[in-house]
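*** Query protein ***
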Amino acid sequence: MAVIVPRWEWRTFGPGVDVAAPQLAGLEPTGVQESDELYLLTGTRPTAKVRDNLMDIKSLIEVDRNGLEQWRPVMKVAFPLAAADVVRTFEALGLPAPETTRDPYTLDEFLAEFGGAAGPVRAVRVHKRRVRYRIGGCTSEVSDVTFDDVPTRTLAIELEDQDAVAAAVRSVGLGDYVNTSYARGIAWLLAGGKRRYAVIDVGTNSVKFHVADRGEDGQWTVVRDRAEVTRLGEGLEKTGAISPDAASRTADAIKGMVDEATADGALAIAAVGTAGLRIASNSAEVLDTVQDRAHVRVEVIPGEEESRLAFLAVKQGIGLGDGRLAVFDTGGGSTQLTFGSGDRVDERWSVDVGAVRYTERFGLDGVVSPETLEEALAAIAEDLSRLNGHAVDALVGMGGAITNITAVKHEMATYDPDVVQGTVLDKAELDRQIERYRTRDAAARREIVGLQPKRADVILAGACVVRTVMDKLGRDTLTVSDRGLRHGVLAERFGG
């Protein structure tokens, strides 16, 4: 008897099909099929549908590192269902066994008793017109579907070879898109079909998480925006590698964000990595750890690309005229600088100037002497010597150090991005905060209103980097942008 190997399946709905359309346009169809089915939504993970008068239930076997799913048929019984089969149906769906009132049940009787407004089952009538293709050797289909007369489209790709499926998904431009089963797709559409997207920015000191809805007018509405300090780059300056503990806690944070975005109904999750992952000798192993645990692929982007995307976010969020503008984003492992005028980027580059590095080098996580502070500032100035001779009409800063400095300025017990956005910081405020941090250890800094407790170790070094950039560019003030890399990625990848 032949052994049936379950296929690895991947699917997207609505906007994802539009993204893939140009790549699908030149393919020759291999077949067309239409069907009418009845999906039974229960809020549990197994899927149930009625097709050709059969109750057909599948259970999820496994989800792989790419988010692909394997499903196993667990029940296929014809109507009318015996009372015992109704009980089996509920057990297969992970629902409490019902009290049966008849034996057997026709489909109409089953729906009347268990599918009413107060029942555990919601029946959705589905019509499918499926056009099949081959993508990268995988079986694929684009379907025009109506759920209770609400239309949408879906693209599915499947094969026994999971690597081939993952490669095929990426080949049509959908590497960031979430694998969405029929049950989740139906729920998404019937809930309004929001174009919701997520971005995860994996930095050297913190992981930033942003979820937003794109409206029909192209404007974004924020659903979630937060950061979690994981200290991915802890010890990186000394060892050149990311420690197992840092990799593990970062992977856990990313998994939580992926789970949250999926529960929120995000259609796609873009994850990007920056300086720490660019320079670590074991970056590939860390990325594997993240993908195995969180089922998301983190793309490590070049420093210049990081700068360009940050500049894009600033130009969309702050109006500063058409003069020469410098935008800098300083993090735990690097600082990105972009120079431009109007919407034009003239120059962009990245330097390994980050708060974690100087904190570890000069012991800036505790009380430090004025002499040590001067040594740190001199080292930062030397490492930022490429800025010498640059003149700008306006300076914008972003990143965790700058937004925390801004929150301290405003004494914000609860972070408010609308207050932070557009705040002007001057040198006097930077000097005041540098002295405040210099004279306190990390424990005492955590008592400062507005300062994120997990950033207390590195805030002095971050403030020194900010102050040095202002000196180098000859600016007495800078404008703060709460928007950063994650907003630029969101606009570029999902703004079309």
Remarks:
- The chain is about 35% helix and 30% strand.
- The longest strand covers residues 122-135.
